[in-house]
Predict the structure.
Amino acid sequence: MHVMETKGDIQHLEFYMPSRGLVGLRTQMLTNTAGEAVMNHRFSEYKPWKGAIPGRNNGVLIAKEAGKTTAYSLDKLQDRGFFFVDPGEEVYKGMIVGENNKPGDLVIQPNEGKKMSNMRASGSDAAVNIAPKRLMTLEECMEYIQQDECIEVTPNFIRMRKVILDEDERKKQAKKMSTEAA
């Protein structure tokens, strides 16, 4: 930060930051200031690499199998985090379907159906109450993904996924990377 001054009811702030640090900043600024922020940026000069820009702290929820998500399954998994999909949406193996509440990725089964039996308990079939999915723009997705993730853009969808879709292959790759680093 190079300038911080008050002009009436307005705070004027000036920062020098890398262009790659601007990805996703506008959305976050507007959210944090309830739409009141005015942001302007321009190129100043090329400078040497100053280091990594910190990303998200939490892991992601990854679909274990392909299929349509079910309200029953998403309702059971809501305490794990929030979702980027609604019930009835088609998902595939390795697709990022939500954000984990904790650090580290978690593979989940979002398309598990309810087991039907002849015996019914009163109150056991209560209506599911699922929070609405979190919609993300392409810019928000670009800010959100980590190094082992990518964005899939089609005419109908913007989805995030792991670069390596198979869970076992991801584990092998992580193990291989850790032994090479040692």
About this structure: The longest strand covers residues 3-7. Strands lie at 3-7, 10-14, 60-63, 67-68, 81-83, 90-91, 96-100, 106-108, 149-153, 158-162. The helical segments are 25-32, 71-77, 138-144, 167-181. The first helix runs from residue 25 to 32.
